[in-house]
Design goal:
The chain folds into four domains: 150 residues, Glutaredoxin (3-Layer(aba) Sandwich), CATH 3.40.30; 301 residues, Glycosyltransferase; 60 residues, no CATH class; 78 residues, Glutaredoxin, CATH 3.40.30. The protein is built from 25 helices and 20 strands. The longest helix is centred in the middle third of the chain and has 19 residues. It is α+β, with helices and mostly antiparallel strands and 664 residues long. Helices cover 51% and strands 11% of the residues. It is globular. The strands form six sheets. A five-stranded mixed β-sheet has the order 1-3-2-4-5, with helices on both faces. A five-stranded antiparallel β-sheet has the order 8-9-12-15-16. Helix 13 packs across helix 14, helix 18 runs antiparallel to helix 19 and helix 18 runs parallel beside helix 20.
Amino acid sequence: MNRLKDATSPYLLQHADNPVDWFAWGDEAFAEARRRDVPLLISVGYSACHWCHVMAHESFEDGGTAALMNERFVNVKVDREERPDVDAVYMAATQAMTGQGGWPMTVFATPQGHPFYTGTYFPRAQFQRLLTGVSNAWNGDREAVLEQGSKIVEALNEQAGLPSGPLPAQDTLARAVHTLNGSFDPVRGGFGGAPKFPPSMVLEFLLRYGAASRAEEPGADAATAMTMAARTLEAMARGGIYDQLGGGFARYSVDADWVVPHFEKMLYDNALLLRVYTHWWRATGSALARRVALETASFLLAELRTPEGGFASALDADSEGVEGRFYAWTPEELHEVLGEEDGAWAVDLFEVTGTFEHGASVLQLLSDPEDPERFARVRAALLAARAHRVRPGRDDKVVAAWNGLAIAALAETGALFDRPDLVEAAGAAATLLEELHMDGDRLLRTSRDGRAGTNAGVLEDYADLAEGLLTLYGVTGQVRWFHRAGALLESVLDRFADGSGGFFDTADDSERLFQRPRDPTDNATPSGQFAAAGALLSYAALTGSARHREAAEAALGTVTVLADKHARFAGWGLAVAQAAVSGPIEAAVVGPAGDPATSALHRTALLSSAPGLVVALGEPGSAEVPLLSGRGLVDGVPAAYVCRGFACRMPVTTPEALRAELTS
């Protein structure tokens, strides 16, 4: 039976025609397992996952394997990007039972959903043996299987959560810098060895720490933080993990040198990296940072933007059944496209030395070319030639959280680089989410082709979207985004709080799993808890709300616990903590819309690297945003007010004076 044909998930649709009798996650599958008295086989993955495709081809498209699955199990296919809560609880079980995790994730569970055997990718022959063995154990030693499932659930519930401490102080953040420096790769950038993932959130913390330390008490720590950030950002931008022709970053590098990527491109990576490169440019004026930021923004619009105005989740790693085929080149291909002279030049410039099989290489750009015009011509020719290749597949579902990250990044990048088209794209995505994903104080996680999905938003959806909307308000002055963010954060406080200063990842009325997930540590994206802390802190700075400020500070308590030994898994928490310790600074810009003097003050505020700076923009007499209330023109001209905790200095009317206020 083709139960997946109406799914909104491209990943589930990829499996709709399998001979496996798949169920989507839901009550129907559990009821069927109880009726047949067989275990659940829960397979979790996502559309851009290379090994998910491999296991699908080997096992789920194989008639013999499918017959064994259908006979002995109720088979459930889950898109981890649509149901991060389901993924989280079973990944915790998989890591506890096997010491590792990954996708595809394969879970055998009781009809009550309790996992009793887990793993990741299995080759077909091994998978078939496993199916037989698990089924035999279920039928022959049921009591032991049920006891195993109960023990796992009990152990996971006992481990849930992390201890918390007070709001981190500046010395705690300094220790985190030292911890990060201990695993920093000074030659190749990044932290630890292979594989290397873009440490976006850690880099944001290092940039904020460097800015705060320079402003208050310049020292070695600030230089160390900025060096780690700059070395890593440059190495990634010049390596094979970055698409030197079309812009945008791959998911990770399989080696320590950023040369050989795992080629899937994720919206969340590129949104986070776009914002970090923009902030690097803001802090240093780096030409490389500017180029990469603008190219990555162009990639988002060209490759991931949907017809409805949102942003698609990912591009696959594979095309024509080969990982990286779309992106890799041989010397012969370069010569064919460019001719002998330019081809030879490009082979040297892009380090085409046969990284992969058949003599192909991903392109690197280890130094800037001496002839920019020639480079532009060569690059354009290669990009045009690549356009005729078979493109990787695209997962075109719109995820609220990741679109929130994209909204924040595009709004800031557009404002700082005078690209109104990027700000407009951020606004269009926000409008789509407002109209399609928001239902009163509820938020739906996904949509596709203009049709909303059925899955409830999780904490990261509310928090990341609130962050994006507050950033969009600060750039545009459109107060509707401020109000929308406030409504989302009310839901966070009312429906996700855990009663001890932290947050659950699911709302109080969400589906009950065997465990209510709650993970404060960052993964590929900011943890829901740290994302919530950041948005709550910004909202408190715009409103003066003690309730929101106190909630943000309480949620940051786990940073104190993580900073000394696990700083790499708390990058966003550290970045938000730095903003909290630094204030954050509040800048209220008041003046007629369209007035050049208003625009000059506004741009000066946005160009500040003060950690977590919030900007309020409005006409004289604006009162909807409390930070603007009572702030007026000065001698009839636009003015800016620099504040901390709503205690403001004397207003200024020139960009030079505002710049001095923001750095003093």
